[in-house]
Design a protein that fits this description.
Residues 146-255 form the DUF2382 domain. This protein has helices at 12-24, 60-70, 75-85, 98-110, 116-125, 136-139, 199-203, 264-280, and strands at residues 3-9, 32-35, 89-95. The chain is mainly α. The chain has a domain at 3-134. Helix 1 crosses helix 4 (98-110) and helix 2 (60-70) crosses helix 3. It is rod-shaped, with a radius of gyration of 49 Å. The relative contact order is 0.15.
């Protein structure tokens, strides 16, 4: 059963680092959403939920996302996560198992996910400077954009593509065969005669018996089993070369030299203009 793991980071750079380590741990990028409600509207990279598009001018979009996640009955949790989520970068992991969810939570904690309850308490007490969330270039000497490059990994797995099954059964069919049989019958004949008895007749003139038996041929049936054919199952293995066509992505960085005569007022105005342009085109 899939589980959702949420990590909120102070800035997008930390969220990108966590994203890279999640991918290194075997979690595919299409199961990871990264959004920054505190800047302009940002659309997440997949379709796991319909509330993944946030807008700086519509705080309710963040609340709707957490309300869908935690349920409408848990208003305190929704309010706490929404308050912190509007000021940072939200990284959402859609884990396929409890083990993967635990690993994702460990990586999020390791690479800077904030304690939501503690950070919300700091916001409410006024002890946390929210300006540092989105202006790291003003308070540090350097900033970095992670260069992410996908590598194509091609493996093999065995799948069933078909086969054959041999099933044997016994069938019966009637057969006919002709044979000639011989039968004996004893025949008794009586012939009337009238002649004088001879010496031979007188010698046989005594009691006795004569026996003659009858015989007949009857059919004798026998069966002999003979192997007339053999059916075997075997495999022929062949190898083929297949070329995999795929697309991999890589972060492309363009470096633009900025002139040094831009004052702070002009910079602030340009930043506001960029936000307005993004609001008019949510896909930016």
């Amino acid at each position: 059963m899939s589980q959702t793991v949420i990590g909120i980071f102070d800035n997008a750079s930390e969220a990108q680092q966590a994203l890279q380590h999640l991918m290194n741990a075997g979690i595919s990028q299409d199961r990871i959403d990264i959004s920054t409600p505190g800047t302009a509207s940002v659309t997440t990279t997949n379709d796991y939920n319909t509330s993944s598009t946030y807008n700086n001018d519509d705080d309710d979009s963040v609340s709707r996302f957490f309300r869908n996640l935690f349920g409408s009955d848990d208003d305190d949790t929704v309010r706490t996560y929404s308050e912190v989520g509007r000021r940072g970068s939200i990284l959402t992991v859609h884990a396929n198992s409890a083990t993967e969810a635990d690993e994702a939570a460990r990586i999020l904690d390791q690479y800077g996910a904030v304690d939501v309850d503690e950070r919300a308490s700091q916001y409410r007490s006024g002890n946390y400077n929210t300006d540092t969330n989105f202006n790291t270039a003003d308070t540090t000497n350097s900033t970095a954009i992670p260069i992410i490059e996908e590598e194509l990994q091609v493996g093999k797995r065995v799948v069933e593509t078909g086969g054959a099954r041999i099933r044997s059964r016994i069938i019966e069919r009637p057969v006919e065969e002709s044979v000639r049989l011989r039968v004996e019958h004893v025949r008794v004949e009586r012939n009337p005669v009238n002649r004088p008895a001879t010496e031979a007749d007188l010698a046989n003139f005594r009691e006795g018996e004569i026996e003659l038996r009858e015989q007949a041929e009857v059919p004798v049936v026998g069966k002999e089993a003979r192997v007339v054919e053999e059916v075997r199952l075997g495999k022929d293995v062949e190898e083929r070369q297949e070329t995999i066509h795929e697309t991999v992505r890589r972060t492309d960085v363009e470096v633009e030299n900025l002139s040094g005569d831009v004052d702070s007022t002009t910079t602030h105005t340009n930043r506001t203009t960029n936000n307005l342009d993004m609001d008019r085109n949510p896909n930016l």
